[in-house]
Amino acid sequence: MKPYLFLGLAVALLTAGCKKNDPEADLPAATHTGANTAGCLINGQPFVATGFGSGPGRVAGLGGGFAYGGDYYLRLDGKLGGQDGSLHIYLRSIPDYKSNSLIRTYLLNELSAYIPIASPTQCRSYGAFFPNDNSGEVYITDNIHVGKVDFVYVNLADLNRPITAGTFEFTAVSSLDPTKTLRVTSGRFDRQQ
């Protein structure tokens, strides 16, 4: 009987240890209430929209929404491994964005310029990560390094403050070194514009 007790205790401790080391536990819950929360894992490390800086120069944690006559933009600012960074998702020309037919998958699978280097009219749908390290490096999706955004909830009852919630994942390649990539997984957002 004692071996079973020992085995049960070992399994319990192992399970508790696994939960404690789960990086997804540091991400905000996947909600759809307009909570203005967002986060993801970047190469397995938590990245949460918390903003950075202080005082008047503080950068907000989450921004974006519908803009440019039917495009959708999402910006998460936070820290990755102690370093400031910004994750952007841009969805070009969402058809019929004033209807509730937006709950679907949007692909990030084309070569694209990116904001702020290009104007929205020059951009295709993309996902990008900007490390704030003064290197000028940007990680961006293209036709080989792809991803997707799933809108799981859209409430446009008040067009002045619509709520969009969803999930995202993508692989992006460095603008400075095509052998370097990063992987964004477990992404979620709950945004009230």
From TrEMBL:
It comes from the Bacteria. PROSITE patterns: PROKAR_LIPOPROTEIN (PS51257). This is Lipoprotein. It comes from Hymenobacter glaciei.
